[in-house]
Amino acid sequence: MARSKDISVGLLALAALLTAMTACATAANKPSSAGAYGVMVDLYSGRENPKVELSSGVAEEIYGDLDGRAKEFQAVAEPDSKLGFRGFVVTPTGDGKPVLRVTKDSVYSIRSGTHEKLADPAGKYYNLVLNDVKPRLPKDVLDNLP
Amino acid sequence: MVSVELDVFSGRPNPRWTLTSRQRDELIDQLRAGTIPLLAATAGESRLGYRGFILRFDRAELKLLGTPATGNREVRVRGGIDLDISKVAESWLLETTPAGVVPDAAVEESEKQIVTGARLHNVDLIGLRSDVVLAACTIYATSSTNFDFWNAVTSERINNNCYNYTANWKTNTFAQPGRASGQTFTSLTLDNIEAAAIRDGYTKACNGHSIASNLWIWPGTDYHWYRKTADVNGQSRWCHKPGQTPATNRDNSGNIITAPVTADRGNYNTGGRLVWGLGGSIPVR
Q1: ipTM of this model?
Q2: With an 8 Å Cβ cutoff, are B265 and A83 in contact?
Q3: Which pLDDT tens digit goes with each residue over A121-142?
Q4: How many beta carbons lie within 10 A of that of residue B60, not counting itself?
Q5: Residue-level pLDDT at B104
């Protein structure tokens, strides 16, 4: 009887381990839905802009980093309306974080219509977003990004 | 045969020439598409200098255009019905001038006046059939400086696009050409998008008090529309709404838009198609 129990415990442990490994693999390939962050590629004028999800890990890294640089943001007017790529618009769901507009050289933090801007000449945040969402964007969109 | 007369002189005979076969075919395509506003040959400005082009058609051309032999065989091409779109047709006609036919000074004067545009108000546009006289074309123009209707409410601003703006019809659906008529456009070409807009209710000829909407294409990628708005201090104005962003009177270089053809349109470099919406709006969806 003791042996059977040991085997059962062992099987349960193995099942748990396999479940955990599968969950990790899933998380690596697809953004988690919990605390989802949407990204809109603001590119088109007539057609609907593409929308994908941003991985939670990347989003939290970006928001955490920007929180630490809050003092560097400066109040600005809304950017001029232009044709062509206008940035990645990151929209968090809930928890009071601002909407972000991420361009090749800047990050805009947007709350209730007011804009604050952080210069990012190296494109750090742009590349963070792009590298995460790239696998989920169609080729014709990628071809038209800076 | 299509002969062209540049109406520019007062004392001397005006320069005349005949279009080549290729030029004629290109002209016929434009006439069939209804993209060249035509006036009666006798309509015109009382001024010295450039007054437009007079086209004369043979029976063969009338037949190609599907026009009866009794149709108008002489028409005038001149922009200035409070809009600039005929600049494209006039500039094209000026380019067909054979070498040595028109003195340089006359070419220069014509180029300048084509850009300036005439100020012919409430003229009757004509079709190529002599029994067709279109109602006076007047522009339904909204403000070129106040865009509160489009920009004041964030949710409305982001859910209405260039097509909503050009149609002067807010839907909060990011309207698409053809969707209102049950057949959305299927390819990103001028012909396809224009046809979809026509299905929504636009027309190719101005026939009354109408909005004027101008279509451009980023080939294979996207489309964009402009709309003629109210002149400001005598200067022609066009405005637009690039996607979710605010409606504006400025182009990609930050300059006021006086004509889409001369504006900085980014990659939207194919187009200039003009369609008209009678009554001041088109109920797009």
Answers
A1: 0.74
A2: yes
A3: 999 999 999 999 999 999 999 9
A4: 11
A5: 93
Whether the pLDDT of residue A35 is over 60: the answer is no
* Distance from C-alpha of B228 to C-alpha of B235, rounded to nearest angstrom: 12
Mean pLDDT of chain B: 85
Tell me the pTM.
0.70
Whether residue A12 has pLDDT greater than 60: no
Contacts of B223 in chain A (CB under 8 A): 45-47
How many alpha carbons lie under 13 Å from residue B210 in its C-beta half-sphere?
23
Task: Specify burial of residue A110 (Cβ count, 10 A radius: 0-12, 13-18, 19+).
Answer: middle
How far is residue B155 from each of residues A44, B149, B171, measured CA to CA in Å? 18, 12, 11
Nearest-neighbour CA in chain A from B87: distance (Å): 23
pLDDT at A31 over 80: no
Q: Residue B124: which of B183, B41, B204 has the closest Cα?
A: B41
Question: Which one of B174, B177, B252 has the shortest CB-CB distance to A83?
Answer: B252
> Chain A contacts of B222, Cβ < 8 Å?
43-47
Domain positions in chain B: 2-134, 139-278
Q: Provide the 10 A C-beta neighbour count for residue B98.
A: 11
* A21 pLDDT tier (thresholds 50, 70, 90): very low
CA-based nearest residue to B261, from B108, B88, B128, B130: B88
Q: How far is CA B21 from CA A20, A134, B30, B53, B58, in A?
A: 75, 50, 14, 19, 13
Cβ(A80)–Cβ(B254) below 8 Å:
yes
B155 contacts: CB under 8 Å, gap ≥ 6? B172
Radius of gyration of chain A measured on its C-alpha atoms:
21
Question: Which chain B residues are within 8 Å of A113, Cβ to Cβ?
Answer: 154
Between chains, do B221 and A140 touch, taking CB under 8 Å as contact?
A: yes
Domain map of chain A by residue range?
Answer: 1-30, 32-142
